[in-house]
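From the methods appendix. Each design record in this collection lists the tokenized structure first, followed by the designed amino acid sequence. Records were kept in a plain field format so they could be parsed without special tools. The example shown here is representative of the layout used throughout.

RECORD:
FOLD TOKENS (503 positions):
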């Protein structure tokens, strides 16, 4: 990279670290965990978008469009269907119960064992997700900047841990807002540069991209192995989105930070609007890159045409397309902006992940099971910060060992599906089945998680299918077993919390 690029990256790192110092001066427990419940709809919505739109997304959306198809674009349909459920089902429950974590509700509905089971699933899911997101960014940053993947992982992790430990949720959310605008701007700049080098009209690019490639947008073939099959995207991504935005503490913590229930709901709609800007932009980058390297295959690899190269190593080549174009064609300063955007994407994943995992560990395990009076002690905020550091170091260490699991898309899905699907099933049973009890849920979730993990190790199915498998097994087993065990006829369902107490 040019010295201007390094200057841009350094300036960005200093700016982000400053948020931790600015917001870390007057910290107490409520401020650290939920920003004193004072945040507006703009930081709530853009923080959710930046957090759950990780560096995995920054890499695999262009990669999918470049190497396989545009069928991944059906994710937008899944996200659109997901948002009303989050707005009208999950947000009102958390707001009206005034919980510290999403899983606190499950103790009220079932038993403390289910609360800790769900919180434990979340911790495993999110640590694995942080590791895969950090690795995904390190692959691209190392190719563009010339650093080793390990040094990138450790560097980004250290900065993220630093400002999260100091500034708490308020620092995390405002850095997420900045980071969202950084990678959204970079997407537009990257697309403009690729189109400039192509010197083709959009219609010519679309025609070139689609030539001889049927089923680019839809493929409803019933298959568990079809990459980016339409059924898998519509069903699997929908369930993944409901889990991520509805029951995952990363998103729930942002809803709890809002001034009111209505503020959280407006933030959720803003998150959807942000997706409709970012995802099409990334897909168009993948389309334009396919056409560009189809005309200049020698810039991507030596020997052979692009279709031949994609046939021999599709995943690897597709993941390399965007960073290779940046390395060769971005002018001084803009390559640094691209690296900063990747850093923004990964740091927004790491900061939110370690903060929400720390919240779950402190609220659902330490305060509830181990040391219930710890939060009253004067130095508790430093104890919480120490846990942030430990969680962050664990995620960074795991990120160094992610590579053997596959390409960045598969890594992200495989590390979360076995835990996220059953976690969502727990909440569906809790909110909408009066018969379900702690025994039913414990049995169904443990069995469903074990079966899903076993299938992952033994079957070569498209990774998104593991979401409906994990969710479906846990839900069906839990519902069926509720008809065998005694009926407790709970009064803490969605109907009791929201419908019977409309504001």
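DESIGN:
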């Amino acid at each position: 990279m040019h010295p201007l690029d390094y200057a841009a990256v350094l300036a960005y790192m200093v700016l982000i670290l400053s948020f931790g110092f600015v917001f870390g001066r007057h910290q107490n427990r409520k401020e650290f965990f939920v920003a004193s419940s004072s945040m507006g709809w703009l930081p709530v919505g853009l923080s959710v978008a930046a957090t759950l739109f990780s560096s995995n997304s920054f890499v695999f959306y262009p990669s999918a469009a470049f190497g396989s198809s545009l069928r991944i674009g059906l994710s937008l349909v899944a996200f659109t269907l997901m948002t009303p459920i989050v707005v009208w089902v999950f947000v009102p429950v958390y707001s009206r119960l005034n919980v510290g974590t999403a899983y606190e509700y499950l103790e009220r509905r079932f038993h403390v064992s289910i609360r800790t089971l769900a919180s434990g699933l979340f911790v495993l899911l999110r640590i694995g997700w942080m590791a895969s997101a950090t690795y995904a960014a390190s692959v691209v940053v190392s190719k563009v900047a010339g650093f080793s993947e390990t040094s990138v992982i450790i560097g980004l992790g250290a900065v993220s841990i630093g400002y999260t430990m100091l500034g708490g949720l308020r620092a995390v959310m405002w850095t997420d807002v900045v980071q969202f605008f950084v990678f959204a701007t970079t997407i537009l700049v990257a697309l403009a540069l690729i189109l400039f080098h192509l010197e083709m009209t959009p219609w010519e690019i679309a025609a070139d991209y689609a030539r001889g490639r049927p089923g680019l947008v839809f493929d409803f073939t019933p298959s568990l192995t079809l990459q980016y099959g339409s059924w898998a995207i519509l069903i699997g991504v929908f369930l993944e989105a409901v889990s991520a935005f509805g029951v995952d503490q990363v998103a729930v913590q942002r809803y709890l930070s809002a001034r009111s229930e209505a503020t959280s709901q407006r933030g959720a709609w803003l998150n959807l609007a942000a997706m409709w800007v970012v995802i099409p932009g990334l897909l168009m980058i993948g389309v334009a890159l396919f056409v560009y390297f189809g005309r200049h295959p020698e810039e991507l690899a030596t020997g052979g045409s692009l279709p031949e190269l994609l046939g021999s190593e599709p995943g690897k080549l597709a993941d390399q397309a965007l960073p290779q174009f940046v390395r060769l064609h971005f002018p001084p300063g803009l390559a640094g902006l691209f690296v900063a955007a990747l850093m923004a994407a990964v740091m927004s994943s790491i900061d939110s992940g370690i903060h929400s995992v720390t919240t779950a560990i402190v609220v659902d395990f330490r305060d509830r099971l181990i040391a219930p009076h710890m939060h009253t002690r004067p130095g508790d905020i430093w104890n919480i910060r120490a846990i942030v550091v430990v969680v962050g170091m664990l995620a960074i260490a795991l990120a160094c060992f992610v590579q053997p699991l596959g390409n960045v898309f598969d890594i992200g899905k495989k590390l979360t599906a076995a835990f996220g699907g059953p976690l969502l099933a727990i909440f569906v049973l809790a909110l909408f089945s009066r018969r379900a009890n702690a025994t039913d849920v414990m049995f169904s979730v443990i069995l469903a998680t074990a079966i899903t993990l076993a299938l992952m190790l033994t079957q070569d199915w498209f990774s998104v299918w593991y979401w409906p498998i994990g969710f479906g097994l846990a839900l069906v087993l839990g519902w069926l077993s509720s008809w065998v065990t005694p009926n407790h006829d709970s009064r803490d369902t969605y109907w009791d919390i929201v419908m019977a107490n409309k504001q």
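APPENDIX NOTE: The chain has one domain: 3-501.
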